[in-house]
Amino acid sequence: MAKKQFKAESKRVLDLMINSIYTHKEIFLREIISNASDAIDKLCYLSLTDENVPYKRDDYMIKIFVDEDMRTITVRDNGIGMDEADMEKNLGVIAQSGSLKFKSENEDLDANDTNIIGQFGVGFYSAFMVADEVTVRSHKYGAETGAKWVSTGTDGYTITPCPEKTDVGTEVIMHIKEDTDGENYSTFLDKYTIRDLVRKYSDYIRWPIAMDIEDYEFVESEELDENGKPKYEYKCEMKETVMNTMVPIWERSKSEVTDEECKEYYQKMFYDPNEPISVIRVDAEGSVTYKAMLFIPSVPSPDFYSRDFKPGLKLYSNGVMIMEYCADILPDCFRFVRGIVDSPDLSLNISREVLQHDRQLKVISNNLTKKVKGELKKLMESDRKKYEEFYKAFGYQLKYSTVSAVADMREQVRDLLLFQTGPDRMCSLQEYVDNMPESQEKIYYVCADNLKLAMAMPQTEVVKQKGYEVFYLTDPVDEFVFQALDAQDGKPFQNVSKGDLDLVSEEEKQETEQAAEEGKDLLDFIKETLGDQVVDVRLSTTLVSHPVCLNSQGTVTLEMERYFRSIPGDDGSIRAARVLEINPRHPLYAKLQEAFATDKDRCADMARVLYAQASLIAGMPLDDPAEYTELVCNLL
Ligand code: ADP
User: Fold this and answer.
1) Cα–Cα dist 617/636, whole Å
2) Which residues contact 125 (CB under 8 A, 6 or more apart)?
3) What is the pLDDT of residues 499-528, one digit of tens each?
4) CB 134 near ligand 1, within 6 Å
5) What are the Cα distances from residue 461, in Å, to 454, 465, 541, 589?
6) Which residue in 92, 115, 472, 507 is deepest, having the highest Cβ count within 10 Å?
7) Which residue's CA is minimally distant from atom 9 of ligand 1?
8) Are the CB atoms for 492 and 443 separated by under 8 Å?
């Protein structure tokens, strides 16, 4: 039988496994057991609707055999099994498991990149960390005959029929490598090591994981001691022993399971090396009975912000997994939440379509959504530092969902948003409102590329002078969020670089109006000079120490223009209508007036320079930077 070659990317991962210097090689067992457990889940699920499945619920078992002389460890399951085609598809290419696929596509793996092994687990191939030959013998449920897959590593694999494998299920036989100077592989041929590894990594697997282990008992012997009493002796018997506790962690009562255990469970179950920021446990009885254990991660998985990420909770009914990623329980804004839901009320034979209309699931969904929101709100109020860390990781997801979402979701998220109002202050919308002086009627915000630019925006000066806070929005999505949310607690949002801020006294207003009337010819002249770069030139009521600023008029703001500009392929057709505002109280205005009276060319040059400066401080690029530098040189 000719050897087949692994697909290129599989070969790379395989290389990584074989040459791995990863110190926790022991995780191979967890991976192989986890595959066995998945396979049993699948057959068990099938048996709900197919009475020909040969096993009953209590028959399912994962059994481990260790043969020291042959140097083999065998993991046998009575799960769904694989036929030749499945072996080709599943074992010939690297697992499609999202994270690793993402990793291997985007980065060159090298033998030292051990992080991904720990982080994601790498499934079946991890066997090659400890084995120099792996044989898989399997009989798929419903197939006529068995199949065998053998590989000694990167040189390829063979698949052949295996009529000897008659019972449904799979066995993975790993031939353990010889010891080397640095590596004691033989330790995996010790049954007690294996038992400890099962307890350490696979305790919560819901199917029994058994091994024949010597059982020593202290028993009475037939011999008598000098006092005529029976002597005691050790009796050794081989006993099939179940090594894992099997009770899923979420089924154990809250008082019985420590926070540490929950966190550890999360890290193992969801392959996250980081501790979750929160664990939410729900044990509900009433109209719908269910148990849930949800985790809020502290760090997004590497694929979280990519299309490969699969959101959703694991759905169980009476201990049988019915869906691995059920995305219909939590709304999209909470798609980062991981966890499980187990409810005997859910119909087992459920499809995605049915699920969406399932009444019970709706109840669960509403409750859990409330819980997640409540948990985050609590964290925000009780441990701000931790919340801000969480927000750094997932704030973008929250903000994004207010823009894309239906109104209902928007309201879920509103209270959880934070924006900066200073270098060291992140503030929620409600906190901002609570902090408003009585005279303040609007919520002010300004958008810029970064905090420094935002804080330096001339338009913010008058607001700050009043003692009002300003939201400095630096994420491109922020302005869309503010538009989507519209107002907070009846207080409308006001972009300081748009429209009249209405912050000055009647008297000041009149003064500016009068100045505008007197300076009408000058303003018209500037507008004419700047041509279609601006739609208007006005005197400002709000500028304090700055000579000019750039505002916008109409729906498209400068920030939106900047956002669209940043999208690759943008043709520049979305442009904000610009208004140049000039500060009549600034000495430069007097200079402009003077030039207008004596030297129109110089006045025009000054207008162009001031317009360019207003653009720069607003974070907008100059249409003609060369012209600008030349103008500045001339004026100097
Ligand atoms: P993953 O489990 O992340 O999908 P693996 O590399 O561990 O990736 O396994 C690849 C695939 O091989 C599995 O998805 C499954 O279809 C199949 N497989 C592995 N072990 C077994 C088994 N014991 N029984 C049935 N199928 C298996």
Assistant:
1) 20
2) 10, 13, 14, 17, 94, 95
3) 777 788 888 889 889 999 999 999 999 999
4) no
5) 11, 6, 12, 19
6) 472
7) 124
8) yes
